[in-house]
Write a structure and sequence with these properties.
The protein has five helices and five strands, in the order H-H-H-E-E-H-E-E-E-H. The protein is of the alpha+beta class. The protein starts with 11 loop residues before the first helix and ends with a helix.
Length: about 160
Amino acid sequence: MEQQAELEIVAPHALELIERANIDMQLATAKKYPRDLARVKKRMLEFATLDDETAGACFYTLTRKDSNGEVKTIQGPSVRLAEIAVACYQNLRVGARVIDNDGKAITSQGVCHDLENNVAVTMEVRRRITNRHGKPYGEDMQIVAGNAACAIAFRNAVFKVVP
């Protein structure tokens, strides 16, 4: 015989109070244990140069053709470098999520909140989910595009907060 568990419905104001208490505690902890920038820099360098694979993953490189057909190389810091920064910088609340899918593009939002300095940044990224003929990608590829957009939004938000 199966027993059904009763679900408790929590009022929205209770969820707000819980979230506010969580953030207040994190702010208090951030003030109590401030970051040491020399230590942050040292730890980031140690993480990033752990091995060749990790060092290589700290940057992305894309080749694209410009309007003249000339091949251009685009390089920049990767989401892996942003993850290292988050792990070492301390006192951050970060996240990313898909906030919209209109059938043509996915919009993801990245958030980074520096609890120590009380600086918060939200960045949005759109990724196309149609092929060159305008036909929408399949469900799996839309998920892949959403994950890529989240990674980019996460990276962009982190690097707006972490110098």
